[in-house]
Design goal:
The complex is a heterodimer of chains A (326) and B (145).
Chain A lengths: L6 E6 L5 H7 L4 H8 L1 E4 L8 H6 L5 E7 L2 E3 H13 E7 L1 H5 L11 H11 L14 E4 L2 E4 L3 E6 L9 E3 L6 H13 L15 H4 L48 H4 L17 H12 L5 H9 L4 H5 L19
Parallel strand pairs in A: 1-2, 1-3, 3-5, 5-9
Antiparallel strand pairs in A: 4-8, 6-7
Chain B lengths: L9 E6 L3 H10 L8 E6 L7 H9 L4 E6 L10 H18 L7 E5 L5 H18 L14
Parallel strand pairs in B: 1-2, 1-3, 3-4
The chains are: A alpha/beta (326), B alpha/beta (145).
């Protein structure tokens, strides 16, 4: 009897579903994957239950791909369960890797998020002022919901993570390279990000249009101008996260004539993507006059949210100071 | 730690050419000043990566000082201008993180200004003492923080 095929699991936590889509987007290549492995758990696509997963022997799954950050108790529980069952855990996509877009909620907390979502938005109709409760008794039965946390965490803040597949969503080539490396046992050292360790600018076709010395006199947003389809975005005065962002994404945003937003996270040499971009941007502001510096800095709309768009929960500060959240 | 016996923990990044020498002068001239500032010598205020500042806050600093040569006097021509631009931008970001701008200070201290260094140290320490501890400790990975 031949060796059984390696088992693979997919799971999502606090994410949009785009990473699940990135698996489907492998197109015909997914047939090669399915031929080589057994998918034993994938709640989005296949009808397995939690009890099926619990029944599997510990360590029996070759690799679990988990996407999404961790912001609720249920996600924490599932992450621990998958960690126990899987030999390798891959943080799949920007949210599991860095916290991602949902991680921007770390500028708020549970109370302010609930206030906005269940009370104050114009489209909310909630005359009873009802909020989700962890326990509700109905007809003598107790219904439960997971606990909602104040803070979104990247996956590696909760469980040990073996590899990171970066991107929002990860490029298909990165996913296929990762799956192939796992199947062939040709993996880099534990903890590696499975993408090139060079910046987005390194791969960018527009790099050659970058002037020798970048200098910005006005900072603009894409909607305020007609974007040149070939010129370096920073040279156009647009905030492009390329210098502080890892490459390997396929430059899909750049090809769509939009600046890089930083979804691949920083390269290995950097702890804090936002701080590193701040440093780069401040260096190329073209003025030494204090008043003019203040004016340029004030013209940036939401700098923290822009520079930490994908990486707030994994940044050095991780969240807004709790006492300061209003 | 309560407000009454709070001793501010301050980290200072001082440039080698002006401010560190100015601090040295304050020392050799036997000027007394608040002992709260932990000094880290860097070659230029322009060498201070914003990551250093965030890491200092993350690891318990209540205030961070960057000090360099006066504008126009930088040993490397314009490192201090870069420091100035980074300071302004980082200050805005720190405020979005709920960290008061008074906790992150930029000062120009020349090699001959021992007395100014003494004054900056005393003022900064008293400012932060009034502001109280930063208390970022709970910002960890936890659920309730």
């Amino acid at each position: 009897m031949s060796d059984p095929k390696p088992k693979i699991a997919f799971y999502w936590c606090s994410s949009c579903g785009g990473c699940e889509e990135s698996i489907v987007d492998l197109g015909e290549d997914i047939l090669k994957v399915v031929a080589a492995v057994d998918i034993v758990y994938w709640p989005v696509a296949l009808d397995f239950k939690k009890k099926d997963l619990e029944a599997m022997p510990d360590g029996s799954i070759a690799v679990a791909f988990i996407n999404g950050g961790i912001r609720m108790s249920e996600q924490e529980e599932m992450a621990h369960l998958l960690r126990r069952k899987a030999h390798l855990v891959v943080a799949h996509g920007a949210c599991a890797h860095l916290g991602g877009i949902p991680g921007l909620a770390n500028f708020w907390n549970k109370e302010t998020i609930f206030r906005t979502v269940y009370h104050t938005t114009v489209s909310t109709a909630n005359p009873g002022g009802v909020e989700p409760q962890q326990e509700t008794v109905l007809d003598g039965m107790t219904l439960t919901l997971p606990e909602f946390w104040d803070t979104v965490c990247p996956l590696d803040a909760i469980i040990d993570v073996d590899y990171y597949l970066p991107g929002c969503a990860p490029h298909r080539d990165l996913i296929m390279n990762a799956v192939t490396a796992i199947l062939e046992g040709k993996l880099p050292p534990k903890g590696s990000v499975l993408a090139p360790n060079t910046s987005c600018c390194d791969e960018c076709d527009r790099n050659k249009t970058k002037p020798e010395k970048l200098a910005i006199k006005e900072i603009k947003r894409p909607y305020e101008m007609i974007l040149d389809p070939e010129k370096c975005f920073l040279a156009q005065g647009l905030i492009c996260m390329g210098p502080a962002t890892r490459g390997g994404c396929g430059e899909r945003c750049i090809e769509g004539n939009m600046p890089c937003r930083g979804c691949m996270g920083p390269t290995d040499q950097v702890y804090d993507q936002g701080a590193k971009f701040l440093s780069a941007l401040a260096s190329i502001l073209d003025t030494n006059d204090e008043k003019e510096i203040d004016r340029l800095v004030d013209s940036i709309d939401d700098p923290a949210g822009t520079f930490y768009r994908f990486s707030l929960p994994s940044s050095l500060l991780r969240r807004k100071k709790m006492e300061a959240v209003r | 730690m309560n407000q009454e016996n709070f001793e501010p923990r301050l980290v200072g990044f001082l440039c080698n050419w002006c401010s560190y020498t100015g601090a040295d002068l304050a020392g050799t001239a036997r000027m007394t000043y608040a002992p709260n500032l932990r000094i880290i010598r860097v070659m230029c205020s322009g060498r201070v990566d914003p990551q250093f500042v965030l890491k200092a806050f993350r690891e318990g600093a209540d205030g961070v000082l960057i000090s360099g040569c006066h504008l126009g006097d930088c040993h490397y021509q314009e490192g201090n201008y870069k420091a100035l631009r980074r300071h302004r931008l980082l200050t805005r970001i720190l405020e979005q993180f709920g960290i008061e701008k008074e906790r992150f200070r930029l000062e120009w201290v020349s090699a001959s200004e021992g007395a100014k260094f003494q004054q900056v140290c005393n003022e900064f320490t008293e400012h932060i003492r009034k502001l109280g501890p930063l208390n970022l400790g709970g910002n960890g990975g936890g659920r309730h923080v």
